[in-house]
Design a protein that fits this description.
By secondary structure, this protein is mainly alpha-helical. It contains eight helices and no strands. The relative contact order is 0.15.
């Protein structure tokens, strides 16, 4: 899974639609890869949790290639075409859904939380990270040229974009929580 992410990094940068913004999206993934390798060696997680993290990062790298607002998913699946490009909303929802397994597992395995408290922690984590990310996006609008900020943030003229993004991340977490609690796969195999 780490190899797939490592391969996805240069592929997402090739022919990027907004090369000046690419480093903002791909750079942290590239910088974080050695840390992920070390973290997985020190604190292994289940294959399901590792796959959840890898799936989210790969989804993010797809978005980085075109910039979130311009991912041509409507050309790939014309039935999904709408006036607004909703790929960024999909990624926010996916973050909430895909963060649950690794956060619950880590809470139970490594932080001594009960499964119920780990679920509460994981949902809180998703909401907190979503809020911090939206604050980060806002700070970029202050630092970047307006056209670069708009291309990175992907608000597409929606003044409530940040709130909708955070709500979708929270919804993804809440919808997946019962599945994560019922599965308990982390009691068995580790990566």
């Amino acid at each position: 899974m780490l190899a797939a992410v490592a391969l996805g990094i240069p592929l997402s940068a090739l022919g990027a639609l907004y090369p000046s913004n690419t480093w903002l999206q791909v750079g942290p993934v590239a910088a974080g890869l050695p840390f992920a390798w070390r973290a997985l060696a020190r604190a292994p997680i289940s294959n399901a949790s590792a796959a959840s993290i890898a799936a989210f990062v790969l989804l993010h790298l797809v978005a980085a290639r075109w910039s979130y607002s311009f991912v041509p998913y409507d050309a790939w699946v014309p039935a999904l075409a709408t006036e607004r490009n909703h790929f960024d909303r999909l990624v926010h929802f996916a973050f909430g859904a895909l963060a649950m397994a690794p956060m619950v597992e880590s809470g139970v395995r490594y932080w001594g939380l009960s499964s119920r408290m780990a679920l509460v922690f994981a949902i809180t984590f998703v909401l907190a990270v979503g809020g911090l990310y939206e604050i980060f996006e806002w700070s970029l609008t202050l630092a970047l040229a307006p056209e670069d900020a708009g291309a990175y943030n992907g608000e597409q003229g929606d003044m409530f974009d940040a709130q909708k993004d955070m709500a979708l991340a929270g919804l993804g977490a809440v919808l997946v929580a019962p599945l994560v609690r019922g599965a308990r796969w982390w009691k068995g195999n580790s990566q």
